[in-house]
Structures are given as C-alpha cells and as structure tokens.
Design a protein that fits this description.
GO terms for molecular function: L-glutamate N-acetyltransferase activity; L-glutamate N-acetyltransferase activity, acting on acetyl-L-ornithine as donor. Its main location: cytoplasm. It comes from Lactonifactor longoviformis DSM 17459. With about 400 residues, this protein is of the alpha+beta class. It has 11 helices and 15 strands. It folds into 2 domains: about 270 residues, L-amino peptidase D-ALA esterase/amidase; about 120 residues, Ubiquitin-like (UB roll). α7 packs across α9. The longest helix has 23 residues. The relative contact order is 0.14.
Amino acid sequence: MKVFEGGVTAPQGFQAAGLAAGIKKENTKDMAMIYSIVPCKAAGTFTTNVVKAAPVKWDQKIVAEEPFAQAVVCNSGIANACTGEEGYGYCRQTAAAAGEALHIPAESVLVASTGVIGKQLPMDILAQGVKDMVPLLSPSRKAGSLAAQSILTTDTVKKEIAVEVEIGGQKVTIGGMCKGSGMIHPNMCTMLSFIMTDVEISKELLQEALSDSVKDTYNMISVDGDTSTNDTVLLMANGLACNLEIKEKNQDYVIFKEALDYVNTYLAKAIAGDGEGATALFEVRVTGAQSKEQAVILSKSIVTSSLTKAAIYGHDANWGRILCAMGYSGAQFDPEKVDLFFESSAGRIQIIENGVAVDYSEDEATKILSEKAVTAIADVKMGDASATAWGCDLTYDYIKINADYRS
C-alpha cells in the first residue's frame, strides 16, 4: 500500500471545490462540493443519536433507496439539526440546486451540515454557494484541500489522506477527508467523513466494508462523551479503476478493506488528536482480553474517563484513575493480574505489574507523557483479544471553546 499526500480528488474521476459562501462570519470558507464525473455506488453510516439532523435523514434515504450517487454538498456553520420539516425541505432544495447545476438527478446528491444546532439554513446563500462552486470543480490536489478546509468548525487543522493499492492488476486509489473536534463520542461523533474511491465493487460489499471498518475506527474515538446529531460517513465508488468488480469476499476484497481501514484509522486518529483544546492524542490499547467485546469496553472506558484525560494533560502517571475506569466499565477482569505501560516517542515504561505499582521513575514517566501522542497499554492476561481506542487530554481550553460556541 502506498500512502501519499492527497484527499478526495486523489481517485480517478473525482473533483472538488470549496469557498466562503457567507454562512459563517468574516469570510471564512464554509461550503464544499465533491463530484464524480460518473455515477457512484454509495454507502453510509450515521449517528446513533435518536435526534438526527435533516441531512442525516436525507442521506440515509438516498443511500438505502437510490441506485447511485454522484455528488456531495456540505456546509459548515449551521448543522440543520432540530429544524423540522423546513430543515428537511432545505436538504431537498440543496440537492435540487446541485442537481440542476451539475445536470444530474437531485436524488443522486448527498448533503451534509455541521455547526450550531437549531438554526435554519440561509437557503439563498446556500443555493448561490452551490452555483458558485460548480465552475470551481477541479480534480487538483488544491481543490481537494480547499474542500477539506471548508467543512471545518472548531477544528484547528484540515484532515486528509490518500492511499493506493493494486487490485486485479489495476491501480486503485482511496482518498478521504473529514472534520471533527468536539462533541465526539461513540457511536460516531460530531464528525463528517467523505471517502472517495475508484474501485469497482458491488454496492452490498461496499456497505459491508464501510460498516465493518467504522466499528474499529470512528466508533473507537471519543473527545468529550457527547454523541452528535449529524454524524455521517459517506463512501462513494465510481469504478474508474476498471478492476474486475469485487462481488465476493475474495483476496481483492481483503486488499480493499485493509486500505479502507487504514484511511479510516488515520482520519479517526486525526479527529481525536484535534479534540477541542487538546494538546495530546491519547491512545489506549487493551491486550490479553478474553474477547473483543471485553477489550472494546475496557479501552473505551479508559479513553473517556475525565480524570484520566486530565491526568494526561498534566503529564501525570496517575495509574489509579486508569484502573478505576476499567473497574466501572462493566467488563469483568481480575485487577490483580493487570499490567500497565505508558509509551510515546520518548520511550516506554511499566507502571504496574499484577495490579501493583512497580518501582518506576516519576521523572521518566512525566517525560514520556509530555509528548504530542501518548499511549496507555493495559494487559489483562485473560486471552488473545485486543482493541484500541483514541481520545485526547482534557484541558482548560475545552471549556472556553464550548462556553461561547454559539457566539
């Protein structure tokens, strides 16, 4: 697998655009479009929150009922959530405007929104933004980057990746972009992720690959314990790689799935590491578990613990908080068998062995915990299963950002 600098325009046949339509203040980029020159098979996964934003409902319907999709329109600044029939109507109007401008069916246009909940979209601005983006569509790296920049809210950096693999003797590319910084918690988060590929694959296997991949990637991240109304992951495949269509779970499927997992893992970690106010990516690996389910429960409990996240911010090897988080997770284990390690680019150190603190250097632990990416490894010595979760530290700035988000 070749990993390279790129995003949604990396696969053959995809174009993108981004601009400042005027939804946000101060001429900030706030609209993006992705377009395939040919129809695509589409797959999606969406928020588990009972309160679902209008774009989520629209996309769920398109993915489930329509034979193909060909474009995505995304705005930032206003979430179009809790907006009733009027908000859903705006999704339909946005899709219609894009369909007319691109000369494709409105039912082939997926829409997404992110931002403040409860406000109605300014449809005159949105419709004009759609028209203005069409002439700007380009397969260039710069166009993809502008689109990635235009979907951000409280994110501090844009998040993109592209990979290339060989399937059936043909070069296949997957390129993706996402946004997410706060209101991040399984299952899925205040996050939007758009993944484009030129692979030829059946719609059924495309959906299965995405649904399976999400379990170990986006559903394993948490910033603040809040599950959003707008979470959406869209995967579109236009088949322009001209590989023999993947219709069964053969070696070609395995290769594609591994590449998709890599893209989603990268983007999920990018979201966790860019958590609102965060100074460090916090990774938790649980090993030696009796089952995958047990490992998932334990790792998520640790990575979501506010006390543990605060300790990571303070570069404090407060292992008691980790053991405590494991204890209230609901998963059964023997605390007197747990080994715990911290590691980062500064080194690796064992903190506890069989549930008891070892004679470790606090200074060395602090040094390891002072890096931009920190990992805690808990071995529960019960089996061969494992799971990894990602989060970030909890800082003063998280409160500042969310105390005045609407203003």
